[in-house]
Write a structure and sequence with these properties.
12 helices; globular; alpha/beta; five-stranded parallel β-sheet; Rossmann fold
Amino acid sequence: MNGIKIILTLILAGILSSGAFAQDWPALKFYQEANQHADQDHPKKNRIVFLGNSITEGWSKTDPEFFSQHKNYINRGISGQTTPQILLRFRQDVINLKPSAVVILAGTNDIAGNTGPATLEEIFGNLVSMMELANANGIKVIISSILPVYDYPWKKGLAPSGKIRELNGRLKKYAMEHRLTYLDYHSAMKDDKNGLPENLSGDGVHPNMVGYKIMEPLVQKAIQASLKSQ
């Protein structure tokens, strides 16, 4: 009987702990403290938020000088996240920081199925919602293409390259129709298989220093164009 009670207690503890995790599914607490000190750490003029997943979060770790040399850049990437998670934290991690522009780079983890199956229409819709929220709050939008991927090392066999190109096409079209800035990393980084080549990435998904060095002048040019646009 005591053994059964112990097992039930362990099961209940597991349920409660998983429930606690589920309550912060979008990881709202991840940047909570950093957001409180944003005005101390980052100038308000031409403030730019970089929003995304591990590709964005890892940027600061791989090339910290890029962000330290541009104090107005704020990194708000969270590894593994999909667009519905990022959308849920858009207010606190973007709008409340009152940036001049937001650089959105997201969607690859949706295609990989990180939080379950997702259609291209659903992914696109989440990204459009982010762009609409930014526009409604007077924030310039820089919508990035998804980086090329031939195969996800943690979920092989999905053949994502075609889906990525299709979604990028939709994002580019939307940006043109709504006079937003489209940032095309994909064309600058793809190999002949529409993947990320070995010299730019260790795993075919996340850029290394060489990869980020390709991305940096592209995003800076996009930021300048976005800030100048009416």
